[in-house]
Specification:
The chain has 579 residues and is of the alpha+beta class. The chain has a domain of 405 residues: Endonuclease Chain A (Endonuclease, Chain A, 2-Layer Sandwich). 16% of the residues lie in helices and 15% in strands. It is built from 12 helices and 21 strands. It is globular and about 60 Å long. It is found in: Cytoplasm; Nucleus. One of its GO terms (molecular function) is single-stranded DNA binding. Belongs to the tyrosyl-DNA phosphodiesterase family. Keywords: Cytoplasm, DNA damage, DNA repair, Exonuclease, Hydrolase, Nuclease, Nucleus, Phosphoprotein, Repeat.
Length: 579
Amino acid sequence: VDNAHASQQYNLKLEPVSATVEVKPEPDKTRVSSLVTVSEARQAAAVSQLNPVKYQSSPSLAGKRKKEVSDSSGWALSDTDDDDGEVKANSLSNLPNRAPSSPKTKKLKVEIKRPPSPHGRLYYIDEPEDFFESSIPCLNDTYRFYLNKVTGLDRKYNSGALHIKDILSPLFGTLKESVQFNYCFDIEWMVKQYPSEDRPVLIVHGDKREAKARLVQQAQPFPHVRFCQAKLDIAFGTHHTKMMLLWYEEGFRVIILTSNLIRADWYQKTQGMWMSPLFPRLPKGSSASAGESPTFFKRDLLEYLASYRAPELEEWIQRIKEHDLSETRVYLIGSTPGRYVGSDMERWGHLRLRKLLYDHTEPIPGEERWPVIGQFSSIGSMGLDKTKWLAGEFQRTLTTLGKSSVRPEPPMHLLYPSVEDVRTSLEGYPAGGSLPYSIQTAQKQLWLHSYFHRWKADTTGRSHAMPHIKTYMRVSPDFTELAWFLVTSANLSKAAWGALEKNNTQMMVRSYELGVLYVPSTFTFPVHKNPFPVSSSSLGFPVPFDLPPTCYSAKDRPWIWNISYSQAPDTHGNIWVPS
């Protein structure tokens, strides 16, 4: 977006956004820092503490805003060493007491209701009529990797991309039942995305106590929505997996994605998904091993679901067993909370990725010149220096190529938006609510910032749609070929990927995560230089951002969500002032 025209061009009609409210980590272990408007921009932010401030606001507008703010729920940011950064709103009852702003202020009732979005109540513009698919879209089904549609982009950049309404529409099958695994939910909004409002939906979530009560409360008007609580027995773990299981009259489908089930995540962010083919039902009396894929996707998906130890998922495990998943060409990579020893260490997290790369890729001549790229939207605590985790066990995983005994140290490029990327984005500063890197974590690992590269995505038209997608890959020195590619829910954190303990004899994973890995044994792998508009037969892989990545300049700073940015207004004329 040309900045000079940004506020004009994206003069958005605003409306309320819904979100759920809570802080994820165990309350007794949580250090709550200043309240900020920054939960995932999708979720909503501490509007009561930090409302994006108009650069030049009229007194009447300021007065109106103040009133809006006074009846909102508060938000808290947890600052923990292993927090993954996807932080939810906290209920008022959990917040530190604050003096009333004036003697006339009424005492707030603690109500179970959704707070406003960091975007403000009147932010969203409705998508144009032709935004959603009315016939089966032209999709590149070679890789089955798709980006989300982005409101406000040139149409060509949304061709072959998908909105949640498209995914759930009858174009892809006649839905009977579905399961939604996710982190953050707006139940009312989610229900509206389905073609009919009475097909049973099971929600798999990680909420506890008050947060769980609020989630259940959201679903009261919708008796067809049921819940399954994922066990989170390790502090600071989250249920971060994002997956849909869709059971149709015609068969069964799996979607593994990066978006939360809230409107902001499907609006102006770069997000991605793997959509499975339609899996047909197996003939009655098929053997237990029938319908397996060359990548053992069926076995691995059943093992992942079994890790929940949840009675509510049993019928889905049975259903999957009755379908033919043999067309699948990707490998499943999950994380599930626990401490693992022996061969179990390779079942989850980054050691699972390491094992797959060891078994299913080949050494490459000159591989020390093939960079590793990691791209994510949140950053955990990495330790006092790079050797503690990033350049130690995690880099060892990312640089594995077949059974090569050579252990080269190729370049590692980490993509994370700069302050300028966020400021000039379609959403403006509120996009930073989905990029929850805290000052407390950043100050402890300044060494990390030398790895950082800008978010630039001109090839997909998404340079100004801030990333909530997470991707990891190994690319050739000339950036034209991939050794492998992974799309996942896992951010750059030990909580998500796991960390070795007890002299490398134990792997500890805190969170649930899920992604899919593409390797050359199941695909050919050139990079597609111009993935839009989409054609159904394209051979190139649609990497969602520009290659080669652009290194931060001396002036660039990584986006940190709980400090002020008041020197320059964003594309909507706002500044960002946490209090």
